[in-house]
Amino acid sequence: MNRMSEVIIGDGESFEAALRRFNKKIQQAGILAEARRREYYERPAARRKRKEAKRRKR
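-> structure tokens emitted (58 positions)
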């Protein structure tokens, strides 16, 4: 699955504003959370335990 996010900078828009829009778009898409989740290996038992806790939390 290929997830590409892009932000087109308008005329007169600052780089900082475009960066803020990009960060917001990345967060909404869940890309940052996915990258953090894949940062280290999680044992299958730990993954099941985390998912069960998340399911109980709802």
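The chain has one domain: 15-57.
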